[in-house]
UniProtKB/TrEMBL annotation:
Pathway(s) per entry: Amino-acid biosynthesis; L-lysine biosynthesis via DAP pathway; L-lysine from DL-2,6-diaminopimelate: step 1/1
Enzyme class of the recorded protein, top EC level: lyase
UniProt name for this protein: diaminopimelate decarboxylase
Catalysis performed (reactions): meso-2,6-diaminopimelate + H(+) = L-lysine + CO2
Gene Ontology BP annotations: lysine biosynthetic process via diaminopimelate
UniProt keywords, alphabetically: Amino-acid biosynthesis, Decarboxylase, Lyase, Lysine biosynthesis, Pyridoxal phosphate
């Protein structure tokens, strides 16, 4: 889609997040088509971008939701996701969250430990309800990705080992209040190689076969998310290659296949617009200071993540510059040694591939207001979250202020 960046920045102000809804639809359709001929649900990972309009757009396409808090479950339901397409995952669910999820009758709770299973059983007993569950299996496969987004190794906090999973399934199958309907694995995010996915799927599918052999009827096979996207020059996995290794692993099994794409759906649908305040040189080091900060987009600071950065409509010889924000931290940067032309006050800079883990990780650090969010669809733009105000930030504190 052709985007008039300057016009959008002028209309909505900066810093600003923009999401291309047509791109999101194309990504969903591509992945859903790759599962053609198989029973499947595409459970969008809400944590990647939890704007209600983004979730609602995917709900209309038929998506489910992968949620990691009761707040995300509520968002999914408010946005129109069918309750029987919602999974509640995460390593630390409180009793009140478990209770609400069971009362809302979502598809299943994804369990990460034996202790959690016992808590779910107790809550289900109190409610007099059966809890549909899946268990997150840790196949101990190296995902070959960034260590902070690796989740499938013994050293990670997620999931349980194969032997423990089997014991948990046997226990749950005998319980009056637990119904083990699914199995789950997720080895990491930003995966760019098929072999770890294939190996993990094979291991978990073999566990399903052994469970079915002892009359534990697993119905849902959840392969998690993690399909990598292009930020720089990554070679990524095609949707059809991805689904083929899953089909291969589950051959002969009657299962509904689930996957949990987040970044895959929205990362490259989004861009972050920020305005140049001024340039600064320190001993020959060039800085471009902008009005957006690490509180708006923390990935470069947190992960040293790369985002392509461009100046809009500015010509001239490009020289290296650090693009930095106003937050009072040395880690407040979007890119270092970025080739940029000479820039002036009010020039617009675009930080690309910012649709995933951008706004959802934003904060009010330095009492900075969170930016607005805008959707582009069918050539039209619309506001989907207004810019936060100071009053929004202090609303929950003012009544307790002693004067």
């Amino acid at each position: 889609m052709e985007i008039d960046t300057k016009a959008l920045a002028k209309k909505y102000g900066t810093p600003l997040y923009m999401y291309d809804f047509d791109y999101i639809e194309n990504r969903y359709t591509t992945l859903k088509d790759a599962f053609a001929g198989k029973k499947s649900i595409i459970n969008y990972a809400v944590k990647a971008n939890s704007n209600l309009s983004v979730i609602a757009h995917l709900a209309k396409l038929g998506a489910g939701a992968d949620c990691v808090s009761i707040g995300e479950v509520r968002r999914a339901l408010d946005a129109g996701i069918d309750k029987y397409k919602i999974i509640f995952s995460g390593v630390g669910k409180r009793d009140d969250e478990i209770r609400e999820a069971l009362q809302k009758d979502i598809l299943m709770l994804n369990l990460e430990s034996e202790a959690e299973m016992k808590r779910v059983e107790l809550v289900a007993l109190e409610l007099g309800k059966e809890a549909r569950i899946s268990i997150r299996v840790n196949p101990n496969i190296d995902p070959q990705t960034h260590p902070y987004i690796s989740t499938g190794l013994h050293e990670n906090k997620f999931g349980v080992e194969i032997d423990m999973a089997k014991r948990m399934y046997i226990y749950a199958n005998k319980s009056e209040y637990l119904n083990p309907v699914g199995i789950h694995f997720h080895i990491g995010s930003q995966l760019t190689k098929l072999s770890p996915i294939r190996e993990a799927a094979m291991i978990v599918a073999d566990l399903v076969r052994s469970l079915k052999a002892i009359k534990i009827d697993i119905k849902f096979f959840d392969v998690g998310g993690g399909i990598g996207v292009v930020y720089d020059d990554e070679v990524t996995i095609s949707a059809t290659d991805y689904t083929q290794v899953i089909f291969e692993a589950t051959k002969g099994l009657d299962l509904t296949l689930l996957c949990e794409p987040g970044r895959y759906m929205v990362a490259n649908a989004g861009a972050f617009f920020t305005k140049v305040l001024y340039e600064k040189n320190n001993g020959g080091k060039r800085f471009v200071i902008v009005d957006g900060g690490m509180n708006d987009l923390i990935r470069p600071s947190l992960y040293n993540a790369y985002h392509k950065i461009e100046a809009v409509g500015v010509e001239g010889e490009k020289t290296p510059a650090d693009v930095v924000g106003p937050v009072c931290e040395s880690g407040d940067f979007f890119g270092k040694n970025v080739p940029l032309p000479p820039l002036e006050h009010n020039d617009i800079i675009v930080v690309h591939s910012a649709g995933a883990y951008g706004f959802t990780m934003a904060s009010n650090y330095n009492t900075r207001a969170k930016p607005a969010e805008v959707a582009l669809q069918n050539g039209k733009d619309r506001l989907i979250r207004k810019r936060e105000t100071y009053e929004d930030q202090v609303r929950l504190e003012l009544e307790y202020l002693e004067k």
